[in-house]
Amino acid sequence: MASKENDARKEPRRFGGGWLVLAAVGAAVVALGLAALLTNIFQRQQEARNPFYRVVELTDTTVDPAVWGQNFPIHYDQYRRTVDMVRTRYGGSEALPVQPTVTDPRDTVSTSRLEEDPRLREFWAGYAFAEDFREERGHAYMFIDQVFTRRQEVAQQPGTCLHCHASVYTVYREAGDGDLMAGFERVNQMPYQEAAALAEHAVSCIDCHDPSNMQLRVTRPGFIEGIRALRASEGVPDYDVNDDATRQEMRTFVCGQCHVEYYFAGPEKRLTYPWSKGLKADSMLAYYEENGHSDWTHARSGAPMLKAQHPEFEMYMQGVHARSGVACADCHMPYMRVGAMKISDHWVRSPLLNIDNACQTCHTWPEDELRSRVHVIQDRTYEIRNVAIDAVLDLSRAIEELAARDSTAAVLPAARNYHRRAQFMTDIVEAENSMGFHADQESVRVLARAINYARLGLATVLGRPLAETRPQTAPPQTVTPRGEGGSR
Amino acid sequence: MAFAILVGVAAGIGAFTFVYARGHSYLTNDPAACANCHIMSEHLGAWRKSPHRAVATCNDCHTPHDPVGKYATKAKNGFWHSFYFTTGSYPDPLRITPGNHEIVEASCRYCHERITDAIDAPEHGAATHKGALQCTRCHRYVGHLVR
Fold it and tell me: Is residue A412 assigned to a domain?
């Protein structure tokens, strides 16, 4: 009797037991999955708040980016990737293995622009750039490439050069006993090698960020003074960029600290940005014509020449993106998503290597279409850049021939002045690293002006001078179809 | 007994997760609910400055207006948004799917039909809104001035 009852009890229990175990396991799995989901949600919410651990205290003397990287590892990791050497059609850099020497320990350099375009040796004849000029490569290399370029061997460069090619904020403050400007002036007057010994890093976090609150700030005296002169010419006196600039403007200005045209003023070799008449190429040329500065005497034509250097900031300001409020960082350090965090990508590189983040936030066309649009712009600029270089060289050779025949020819000063102007305008576009993209129509306009100066210079050499400016013809009267009205 | 406990644990964690992730907010029309995922903060902020801020919430444009369609869309999008945000495997920048784009186009017409009826003719494209003139091609930013 008892066993039968037991049996009756056992059977349903045995049948129910298996399913029960299965259900229990299932419930456990569900509970596990839910716990995992819960922790993921929690993680995303933490990421969204963008916290950082204050692992180290950052001060106004913390120059080593690795130390900043302890608090901001993701930014630091991206920043370190500027060692990558990737070519784009007109930019980037290609790694060239070389044998280290006693004077140059680098085992990799970028390709020589002088070998890519041998005309450039003649273009810059008599100047250090004709000796060594290479593809620019990532920020990580800015210091060593300056220290070891052969341009240091053919001329004694001043410590001023360090202003843009190393992390100098702490260097200047130390050299000036806490005074940035005094340190700047002192370092400018040192020979380059002595100044370079004071620096240790390429551009570092402290050069753009206030360590107490990560706010962007300008640290370069050259830019502080340059932008003050520019604003003064626009009717805004006593402009203090760190007080008066907006956040979005700062996202351009921190790059504009270095990506600019400059010269060294006076025997004290003070780094100066030629902006007191404005940022356009014509304005900078007018500035130099007024103060008579020249960088070197051309070995072929004997003209007093100006060298333009990387005027990306000035050129960009002429373009439609700048006009639309887009900052340098919007394309070259676009926001990227890491989990649920949104951070600025500190791997500064060509936007062509990052089209989806750099371009497609605003331009929702396929990558191929965007890339080919950029290439069209750059190909067109390159075409006219070549025409301009040839035009300038034609003028330079004609002057040389004339001077060889008759060194006292009356037209020589005027002809040489045309060479100076034509070459500076060409060099502005040649030295600018976007191959026209930053301001495409302006780039070609500047090149056209250069070709015009070359034409006028040739006419002068040939004894048939032409008027530089002609009376403006009135714009054609627009015919408004009957019935449309309006005053456009 | 163990089974009962485990079911209880699962239910408990489930309920906690639901509340922690503010699951109840997704049943409302409150635009802030869409920004529970902070990647949407820019869109919420942009909508607050947009011309439609006083007349349309997120649901008014991004879900159909019939009750079945509305909650079906919420459920489907809710699942897939959660899935992709958990795994992180969605491409940058964000792009609306064709299906959701259809819904947005239909929403434009839901309110503006009297104005758009004249240009929404079959001659301008296929019977579905996909082939027809797309409102958002020109009026891209009326909802929110970011993509």
Answer: no
